[in-house]
Amino acid sequence: MMSSAEEELNKLRSKIDEIDSQIIRLIQERASFAKEIGHVKKNSNEAIYRPDRERDVYEKVTKQSKGPLPDSVLRAIYREMMSGTIALEHPLQVGYLGPEGSFSYEALRNKFGSSIESIPLPTIPDVFRAVDSGQIEYGIVPVENSTEGHVSSTLDMLLESHVSIYSESYQKIQFSLLGYEKDLKKIQKIYGIRIGNEQCRNWISANLSHAEIIETSSTAMAAKTVAEKKEGAAIASKIASETYGLDIIKEGIQDFSGNTTRFLVIGKTDCPRTSSDKTSIVFSLPNQVGSLFSALSLFQDHSINLLKIESRPMKSNRWEYNFFIDFKGHKNDPLIESVLSDLKTRCLTLKVLGSYPISEENL
């Protein structure tokens, strides 16, 4: 004989089954409309991936939600739905610094979902070149880290290539020590990317000061190398341990718990305006007194919020610099257009790198 608790559970499960049937029907109906949108986009040569539309969907979903699930769960569900419908509209290829299991791969999955075709490439410049040549539609590259600063190769390629910044995202970085040998005293080699090794320098100094540090092109390559050589240990992500079948010797070995990397999505299209945008530019100035002050004063005079300023040495002229700046606003805003026009007269060179929605992680 069925107990009252079992009867109640069966009733609740039956209601869930009914709701599941409705959800499946509505998801597929939504996908059908998305597929039609894809045909319209294709005929009008409009971009398949739209960060502005992505922002709009997330905002509407979170505003309409009354709980009990947190907004982050709803965003994850909709990210996968949008990923699947983008794949229906058009097979989208996105390049990243590989191999599979890198933090760039993790950032790609968190940004685009699992239905996008991810293309691993050996270096950051290779990601830029693949996008620039039209081999792939988009790429995702790291541009700065909250503890170690900018990624030089990304800044250099933004200056040299013909791609634009199309979107941004932020990825929390947690490093783990991966390998087969659990006894730290027996580990003689550490494989890792330079910036990752630096972010774990205190832990390495305290626990593996005897080990040789060998630099690799990515954290995933470090894990892959350890898996192939069956020696040493890798500083990499937890996802790399799953990808390459390595044990997690120690988790969270980074020196700062809030360690975060900002990633850029690069492409050859422009993103329309949203309610909250960021514009990135790079410029060079005449080597004379007050030139930088003159350039920056334009933003203060028009109450435009500067979000970042970074200098990078010119390769052609010693002791002269390119200045990378992020500020609030879209390049198509009338005020921003006016400021950029004035700024151009005060610079030797000026390049607009892109306007794109400010990531919700940075609001």
From TrEMBL:
Domain of life: Bacteria
EC number: 4.2.1.51, 5.4.99.5
Pathway it works in: Metabolic intermediate biosynthesis; prephenate biosynthesis; prephenate from chorismate: step 1/1; Amino-acid biosynthesis; L-phenylalanine biosynthesis; phenylpyruvate from prephenate: step 1/1
Annotated site, Essential for prephenate dehydratase activity, chain positions: T261
Single GO cellular component term: cytoplasm
Cited function: Catalyzes the Claisen rearrangement of chorismate to prephenate and the decarboxylation/dehydration of prephenate to phenylpyruvate.
Protein's GO biological process: chorismate metabolic process; L-phenylalanine biosynthetic process
Annotated coiled-coil segments of the chain: 2-29
Protein name, UniProt field: Bifunctional chorismate mutase/prephenate dehydratase
Chain ranges of the Chorismate mutase domain: 3-93
SMART domains given in the database record: CM_2 (SM00830)
Main location: cytoplasm
InterPro entries tied to this protein: ACT-like_dom_sf, ACT_dom, Chor_mutase/pphenate_deHydtase, Chorismate_II_sf, CM_dom_sf, CM_II_prokaryot, G/b/e-P-prot_chorismate_mutase, Preph_deHydtase
Alphabetized SUPFAM superfamilies for the sequence: ACT-like (SSF55021), Chorismate mutase II (SSF48600), Periplasmic binding protein-like II (SSF53850)
Compartment list: Cytoplasm
Catalysed conversion reaction: chorismate = prephenate; prephenate + H(+) = 3-phenylpyruvate + CO2 + H2O
Residues of the ACT domain: 280-357
Domain Prephenate dehydratase, first and last residues per copy: 93-268
UniProt KW Nuclease keyword: no
GO molecular function: chorismate mutase activity; prephenate dehydratase activity
Keywords: Amino-acid biosynthesis, Aromatic amino acid biosynthesis, Coiled coil, Cytoplasm, Isomerase, Lyase, Multifunctional enzyme, Phenylalanine biosynthesis
